[in-house]
Amino acid sequence: MTKALVVDDSHFMRTVISDILENGGVEVIDTAANGKQAVKKVEELDPDVVTMDVEMPEMNGIEAVEAITERHPTPILMLSALTTEDADATLEAMEKGAVDTFAKPGGTISTELSGHSEELVAAVEDVAAADPTAGHDVQQSAPTTSTPAADADYVENPTLLIGASTGGPNVVESILSALPGEAKFRVLIVQHMPDQFTSRFANRLDQTSEYDIKEAADGDRISGGEGLVARGDYHMQVSGYSNGRLRVRLDQSERRHSVRPAIDVTMESAAEHIMDPLVAVVLTGMGTDGADGIRAVKDAGGSTFAQDEATSAVFGIPERAIETGCVDEVLPADRLTEAITDSIRRST
């Protein structure tokens, strides 16, 4: 049975979360009212997973995540309110070592959370299965490039498709931050993440990369050097492509693999509409989303890559894609940007 430590400064929320987890088959071995208590109890009790509030007295969630990651690495799920401030703080906590996030519906203290019991239990179980050091390590590794970008000769009009879930934000950021602007990719990113978080995630990618990245809106068009992050709770489909510009459509059609946005939806539609060079990469995460998309890109003549098990917080998504036989290379996180750019270099 999964053992959890519940951390929240609200006694009410600690009770609600604990009851939900216990009813879902997760053993809550203790609770903590602030980050300082959490750090001490993680070292004493060695839980399988920690649910971590963001705003707390004495030591907040970001500080607690950093301390736990340094002293006693443990999978951490951030429980965040649906606010801009909490979204920014949660992304920072994930940079410090948290594995994933779960949005508390209705705000910081709300009985609405009980209506999402199954989703919360599933998120806790997914994070408990993660390697707590894999997603953090990639932030410490500078991605490599084999040749200075200025000397490279790239094919025209390439499109890069990136799919990720649990543990993915840090890896996505590491890839984008090292992606040479001269390659002029059109970039489409599907990161399983709650609505309200995807816009903040897009902003972070925009700030740390040479590419102009934003959260996708229905009907958006992008050209080389630009990218879109699929909006939370919306599938992002490539609906048109002409003269190096692609257009996307957002919709809330049926979930695939129980998720929306789905990696497969974006990759399959890109393979259908884009005739120019395609590159697809699937990263850390739980589940099977992305396998069909990788197959579609490969069938369309594109290049395909998957993150390796050693650097994946959760190896589910890459493993399922690899099992299709349609992945060209399986690589550690800090070698993916190099492989992506090499795949679009002109042959000499």
TrEMBL record:
GO molecular function: phosphorelay response regulator activity; protein-glutamate methylesterase activity; protein-glutamine glutaminase activity
Record PTM 4-aspartylphosphate, positions in chain: 53
Active site: 165, 192, 289
CDD domains in alphabetical order: CheB_Rec (cd16432), REC_CheB-like (cd17541)
Domain notes from UniProt: Contains a C-terminal catalytic domain, and an N-terminal region which modulates catalytic activity.
E.C. number: 3.1.1.61, 3.5.1.44
Subcellular location: Cytoplasm
A GO CC annotation given for this chain: cytoplasm
Known function: Involved in chemotaxis. Part of a chemotaxis signal transduction system that modulates chemotaxis in response to various stimuli. Catalyzes the demethylation of specific methylglutamate residues introduced into the chemoreceptors (methyl-accepting chemotaxis proteins or MCP) by CheR. Also mediates the irreversible deamidation of specific glutamine residues to glutamic acid.
Enzyme class: hydrolase
A Pfam short name: Response_reg
CheB-type methylesterase domain residues: 153-347
Keyword Lyase: no
The reaction(s) this protein catalyses: L-glutaminyl-[protein] + H2O = L-glutamyl-[protein] + NH4(+); [protein]-L-glutamate 5-O-methyl ester + H2O = L-glutamyl-[protein] + methanol + H(+)
Region (Disordered): 132-152
UniProt keyword Phosphoprotein present: yes
Organism per entry: Halobacterium hubeiense
Family named by the database record: Belongs to the CheB family.
Chief location of this protein within or outside the cell: cytoplasm
Organism placement in taxonomy: Archaea, Methanobacteriati, Methanobacteriota, Stenosarchaea group, Halobacteria
Processing after translation: Phosphorylated by CheA. Phosphorylation of the N-terminal regulatory domain activates the methylesterase activity.
Protein name as it appears in the record: Protein-glutamate methylesterase/protein-glutamine glutaminase
Biased composition (Low complexity): 139-152
Assigned keywords, A-Z: Chemotaxis, Cytoplasm, Hydrolase, Phosphoprotein
BP-aspect Gene Ontology terms: chemotaxis
Residue ranges of domain Response regulatory in the record: 3-119
